[in-house]
Design brief:
Layout: E1 15-16, E2 19-20, H1 27-30, H2 39-49, H3 62-72, H4 78-95, H5 98-104, H6 119-122, H7 133-146
Antiparallel strand pairs: 1-2
């Protein structure tokens, strides 16, 4: 059945730090869309705001939304957090520390092995300077035929 224009519900779209929070998801899941807020942080945020974690965002009252916004505003999020992390990495690079050099070379900085893993950090595999004997022999044979 269609809603009339007088009964149209006005739902507030919840935005925090420029990020739109999904309406259909539970509050504890939807808050993790913010950079710097994970599942463990959400528990503390919702406890301080006194909001039930199983509620959907669309079912929150304006008072509950305001309490969540007040608690989240005390945490460093999004652009401020990214800028701080970038500044920390830049400080390590400039000081010439081992971790800074690893960041500069785009290698793992926390002691992980790189011989067999680290594909995420190092990128796609590339063979450098290793030619099989068979390929080298074929190349020599082709070079001698060309002469």
């Amino acid at each position: 059945m269609r809603e009339s224009s007088t009964q149209a519900t006005t739902r507030l779209i919840m935005r925090i730090s420029g990020v739109t929070i999904p309406d259909e998801k539970r509050v504890d899941i939807s808050l993790t869309y913010l950079y710097g807020v994970g599942r463990s942080n959400v528990k503390g945020i919702l406890e301080k705001a006194q909001v039930d974690a199983t509620k959907r965002v669309k079912d929150l009252s304006e008072d509950e939304q305001k309490r969540i916004l007040d608690v989240v505003s005390t945490i460093k999020l999004e652009g401020d957090l990214r800028a701080e992390i970038y500044a920390n990495i830049k400080r390590l690079r400039d000081s010439g520390s081992y971790r800074g050099m690893r960041h500069a070379r785009n290698l793992p900085a926390r002691g992980q092995r790189t011989r067999s893993n680290a594909r995420t950090k190092r990128g796609k595999r590339m063979t450098i300077g290793a030619i099989k004997k068979e390929v080298a022999a074929k190349m020599e044979a082709a070079a001698t035929k060309a002469k």
